[in-house]
């Protein structure tokens, strides 16, 4: 988990314009993902002022400051808002910047940034970026692939063939997100996202061959930076003493943070084509999410057969 994101990085990623305080961008850091719309503060109510947040001014805030506040009020309020840990002021829609806000920015070394985007879209873009970079992370040993549009996390003991299976899936047209180590974080109450550590992006290690650059060998369409994790496929060495699910009705989950991800366990034996099996697992998972459950169909067929035999 990153403790903070520099304002200069926020400017770069969200493509913000810098109106004032360019020299302070690297010194200012964002430590929380929430964005403040300072409506109450403009009325001089500072009891719960979230000064550690990025302060976003839209049409409402700028119009109120212009039409309802005196010059002295604007000067006083904006200077009170520009605290030592306030990351930046951001103006949406390309709106004009009040002279008193520009003055407070220079006096207190708080940058003023801007964008032509509507306020709601700019708010969403900044929140999504900050949430993904400030979220708590967990490192998982495995492969993360995008298969038929689903994020599939392949786990298993070291040496069981995860990377070789990932290579097979890449050759079938699926996309690699991360090999060996996957950084996962919770995006919201229902979404878990996985990505590769920066040092391992687009790289795949194959025992006996070494490290290969997947994007260089297979093209940009063979890789992706991140994806939601929808399904976990755990590879486990076959053991006649172990009971594996045969009907698909023994659903299990693995919990990351507050999100539970469905998990299936696939036994590994010589001669089994894991690429075929994982593709089938992904397609079956998608079908179930669309309302078709083959296990339920089998149960219904079995019950119908039992009823027919009972009548005879």
Automatic annotation (TrEMBL):
Region spans: Important for the catalytic mechanism of both phosphorylation and dephosphorylation: 204-213
Residues that coordinate or bind ATP: 156-163
Family classification: Belongs to the HPrK/P family.
Enzyme nomenclature, EC number: 2.7.11.-, 2.7.4.-
Assembly description: Homohexamer.
Catalytic reaction(s) noted: [HPr protein]-L-serine + ATP = [HPr protein]-O-phospho-L-serine + ADP + H(+); [HPr protein]-O-phospho-L-serine + phosphate + H(+) = [HPr protein]-L-serine + diphosphate
This protein's domain notes: The Walker A ATP-binding motif also binds Pi and PPi.
Annotated ranges, domain HPr kinase/phosphorylase C-terminal: 133-301
Protein name: HPr kinase/phosphorylase
Binding-site positions, Mg(2+): 163, 205
Classification via Pfam families: Hpr_kinase_C, Hpr_kinase_N
Organism placement in taxonomy: Bacteria, Bacillati, Bacillota, Bacilli, Lactobacillales
Cofactor(s) needed by this chain: Mg(2+)
Biological processes, Gene Ontology terms: regulation of carbohydrate metabolic process
Biological function: Catalyzes the ATP- as well as the pyrophosphate-dependent phosphorylation of a specific serine residue in HPr, a phosphocarrier protein of the phosphoenolpyruvate-dependent sugar phosphotransferase system (PTS). HprK/P also catalyzes the pyrophosphate-producing, inorganic phosphate-dependent dephosphorylation (phosphorolysis) of seryl-phosphorylated HPr (P-Ser-HPr).
Annotated keywords: ATP-binding, Carbohydrate metabolism, Kinase, Magnesium, Metal-binding, Multifunctional enzyme, Nucleotide-binding, Serine/threonine-protein kinase, Transferase
Region (Important for the catalytic mechanism of dephosphorylation), start-end ranges: 267-272
Active site feature: 141, 162, 180 (proton acceptor), 246
NCBIfam families recorded: hpr-ser (TIGR00679)
Superkingdom of origin organism: Bacteria
Domain HPr(Ser) kinase/phosphorylase N-terminal, first and last residues per copy: 5-130
Species of origin: Pediococcus claussenii (strain ATCC BAA-344 / DSM 14800 / JCM 18046 / KCTC 3811 / LMG 21948 / P06)
One term of GO molecular function: protein serine/threonine kinase activity
Additional observations: Both phosphorylation and phosphorolysis are carried out by the same active site and suggest a common mechanism for both reactions.
């Amino acid at each position: 988990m990153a403790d903070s994101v520099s304002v200069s990085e926020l400017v770069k990623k969200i493509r913000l314009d810098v109106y004032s305080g360019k020299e302070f961008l690297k010194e200012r850091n964002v430590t929380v993902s929430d964005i403040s719309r300072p409506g109450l503060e403009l009325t001089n109510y500072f009891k719960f002022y979230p000064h550690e947040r990025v302060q976003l001014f839209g049409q409402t805030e700028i119009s109120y400051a212009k039409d309802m506040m005196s010059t002295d009020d604007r000067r006083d309020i904006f200077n009170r808002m520009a605290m030592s840990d306030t990351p930046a002021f951001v103006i949406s829609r390309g709106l004009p910047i009040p002279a008193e806000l520009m003055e407070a920015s220079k006096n207190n070394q708080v940058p003023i940034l801007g964008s032509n985007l509507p306020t709601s879209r700019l708010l969403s873009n900044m929140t999504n970026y900050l949430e993904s970079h400030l979220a708590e992370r967990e490192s998982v040993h495995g492969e993360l692939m995008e298969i038929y549009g689903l994020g599939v996390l392949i786990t298993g003991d070291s040496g069981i063939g995860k990377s070789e299976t990932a290579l097979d899936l890449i050759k079938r047209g699926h996309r690699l997100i991360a090999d060996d180590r996957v950084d996962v974080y919770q995006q919201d109450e229902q979404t878990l996202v996985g990505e590769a550590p920066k040092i391992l992006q687009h790289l795949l290690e194959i025992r006996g061959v070494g490290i290969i650059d997947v994007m260089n060998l297979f093209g940009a369409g063979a890789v992706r930076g991140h994806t939601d994790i929808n399904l976990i496929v755990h590879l486990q060495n076959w053991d006649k003493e172990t009971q594996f699910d045969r009907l698909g009705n023994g659903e299990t989950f693995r919990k990351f943070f507050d999100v539970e991800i469905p998990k299936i366990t696939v036994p590994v034996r010589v001669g089994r084509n894991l690429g075929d099996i994982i593709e089938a697992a992904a397609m079956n998972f998608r079908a179930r999410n669309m309302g078709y459950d083959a296990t339920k169909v089998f149960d219904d067929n079995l019950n119908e057969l039992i009823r027919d035999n009972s009548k005879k």
